[in-house]
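Supplementary Note 3. Input sequence used for the single-chain structure prediction.
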Amino acid sequence: MNLLIVEDDEGYAEALRLELGALDHRISVATTGPAALTAVEQDDFDAIILDRMLPAMDGAGVVRRLRERGHRLPVLMLTALGRSAEKVDGLEAGADDYVVKPTPATEIDARLRALLRARGWADDSGDDTLRAGDILVSPGQHRAWRDGRVLDLAKLEFGLLTELARHAGSFLTRAMLIERVWGYDFEPTTNIVDAQVRSLRRKLMAVGGDDPIVTKRGVGYMLRT
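The predicted structure, written as discrete structure tokens, is reproduced below.
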């Protein structure tokens, strides 16, 4: 599995990286919540091992932001906190499982594999396919198709198509797309959304078919169902 460890205790993170690496996993490490969010946008992870207490943004906040952006990859919350209230907070934020550290790497490995099996996922694929008309999007595989033809999309184009497909039939405002795709909590003065929509629209139409994206002035964009 391709795993992301999010842990601000660098000694513990390194020990866990070595132990899980010895179990044939590919490991990346982030030490803050914002760094973890950036890492998820830059790589296709199979699961996240997430510390509950982090600087800048705690683990629960990281999970909430991931789920808001549409990321469904399993999250195992790993922390020194064992109080029920802390566990409930993490799980309600969107974490899939919760263990108190130190936990053996073999148990973490087993729990992650159980989470993947429970979702019907293999290590490199998922059952998270989104459909909008003749368009299919698999966030887990980071792949998209139109009428059975693979779409060659840049990262932002893929994120934009994923968000539009997730809400196909409904309009999304530019501000909503800025937050969910770019991760900004403000609307830039540039027309970056419009530019990415134009680029995505060209690629969708290049493989055949009518324009599947509806633009409503003053409102936003919608992907046809």
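The first strand starts at residue 2 and ends at 6. The two ends are 34 Å apart (CA to CA).
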